[in-house]
Specification:
Blueprint (H helix, E strand, L loop, with lengths): L1 H4 L8 H15 L2 H9 L6 H23 L5 E3 L3 H10 L5 H20 L3 H7 L2 H22 L3 E4 L3 E4 L4 H18 L5 H20 L28 H4 L5 H26 L12 H18 L4 E3 L3 H6 L5 H11 L6 H4 L4 H15 L11 H16 L3 H18 L8 H15 L2
Antiparallel strand pairs: 1-4, 2-3
């Protein structure tokens, strides 16, 4: 183990790496129930997605540790799961076809990584749009959370309105405040503790208030243990995803996954000092991106939205994690949860909605890096940011962000500032709008 991971060379030990792996797991374990909760809205079986989420998280994290020797946890990403459910599946794409798109996006990502085409795409996408898309997805997740507990409801006159105070919305507000306080206090596992605590309180409230059927927002689990549900394994429809209408959605999956991963690698590398002294790039970034691509491909095979490297990996790095052993420990800790899916299936929306808002806050941080006083940069960024939640489609935000950026530069006589690859992307964006 010492020779394989180079523990002494990286100034760490087995004990430190185990503690770091536990810290990373606690900060990202919320995905075990949040991801199935989002994908099940699109008609996929909760237990099947939960099993897929756990297996993908375990396999991908372990692979990151063994192949890239980096302390990064990998799991189905927030934002990408919203795109999968609300833009693709609820937008009319059957979920097997959407899984096929995930699989193909992983293959594309792997090819881009092997032939280093990703550098071209990274240069083609304006930095301000990357920041805006990330933040727009954060707003989208917050909107989904607020809607799921009835805090925001449809309104014919104003489109949306406040849903009013009741037992569920009051519990949601209280949970959001308490979880937010734990995050401020830097409590490791705050999101997980929040989900567990809120779920228990929700069940108690239902019993005390004697809420029945449709009025109830949580119920007592009938079972705790059960065998893993592999019903989604190999259910992807790759042939169905090979159509003109799916070109931009597949690109969007690659785009969101790639930039989410790169941003995470850079952020965590700065925290842990993993930057290469000569290039300034994160250590082993090529291998890490390849693992990320493999993780996305595996996601389609097992039956979940794309996996990506989690920024929560910084928690393990702060605990001293410096090698892939941290990621291996994180991956192994996911596996036992496959056998308690009946219990996890009873986690109510009121317990996961506060988490979506907290994650939304985290994802808004890139807005500080956009030059809002430069209208050439601000206009496309605002469209991407605003249209993602307002159209309930990440795809629409990305599409209009790209097109408006290119149009602004063209009208300003600065067409040369638009990367050739972006013009190609714009063509596909227009085609997708025509076939929308």
């Amino acid at each position: 183990m010492e020779n394989f991971f180079g523990l002494k060379a990286h100034g760490t030990s087995v004990r430190t790496e185990i503690v770091a792996g536990l810290a990373t797991f606690l900060t990202m374990a919320y995905i075990i129930v949040v991801n199935p909760g989002i994908l099940s809205i699109g008609g996929m079986p909760f237990a099947g997605v939960l099993t897929a989420t756990i297996l993908v998280s375990a396999i991908s994290s372990i692979l990151m540790g063994l192949f890239a020797n980096l302390p990064y946890g990998v799991a189905p990403g927030m934002g990408i799961n919203a795109f999968f459910t609300f833009t693709l599946v609820l937008g009319g794409v059957p979920w097997p076809t959407a899984l096929g798109a995930v699989f193909l996006s992983g293959i594309v990502f792997m090819i881009l990584s092997i032939f280093k085409v990703r550098e071209i795409i990274v240069k083609a996408i304006p930095t301000s749009l990357r920041y805006a898309v990330a933040s727009g997805i954060g707003l989208f997740l917050a909107l989904i959370g607020l809607k799921s507990v009835g805090f925001i409801v449809p309104n014919q006159a104003t489109m949306v309105a406040f849903g009013g105070l009741n037992a569920q919305t009051i519990l949601f507000i209280a949970a959001f405040i308490i979880i937010g306080w734990m995050v401020m206090k830097k409590v490791k596992g705050a999101l997980v503790y929040g989900i567990i605590g809120t779920s228990i309180i929700a069940i108690v409230l239902n019993l005390v208030l004697d809420l029945k059927d449709g009025a109830a927002f949580a119920s007592i689990p009938k079972d705790v243990f059960g065998w893993p549900d592999f019903s989604l394994f190999l259910k992807m429809d790759v042939l169905g995803a090979l159509s003109v209408a799916m070109i931009l959605p597949i690109f969007s999956l690659v785009f969101v996954d790639m930039f989410d991963s790169i941003s995470t690698f850079v952020g965590v590398a700065e925290v842990g000092g993993f930057l290469d002294e000569k290039t300034g790039q994160p250590r082993n970034v090529g291998r890490a991106l390849f693992v990320d691509a493999v993780a996305t491909t595996v996601s389609g095979i097992f039956g979940t939205s794309s996996a990506t490297t989690f920024i929560e990996s910084a928690a393990g790095v702060e605990e001293g994690g410096r090698t892939g052993l941290t990621a291996v420990v994180t991956g192994l800790l996911f596996l036992p949860f496959m056998f308690i899916h009946p219990l996890l299936g009873y986690i109510p929306a009121v317990a996961t909605a506060p988490i979506l808002l907290i994650i939304g806050i985290f994802m808004l941080q890139p807005l500080l890096k956009i030059k809002w006083n430069d209208f050439e940069e601000a206009l496309p960024a605002f469209l991407a940011l605003f249209l993602i939640p307002m159209t309930y489609s990440i795809n629409m935000g990305i599409t209009w962000g790209f097109l408006s950026f290119s149009l602004v530069k063209l009208l300003r006589g600065k067409a040369k500032e638009v990367h050739p690859a972006l013009w190609v992307i714009d063509v596909f964006a227009i085609i997708s709008l025509i076939f929308h």
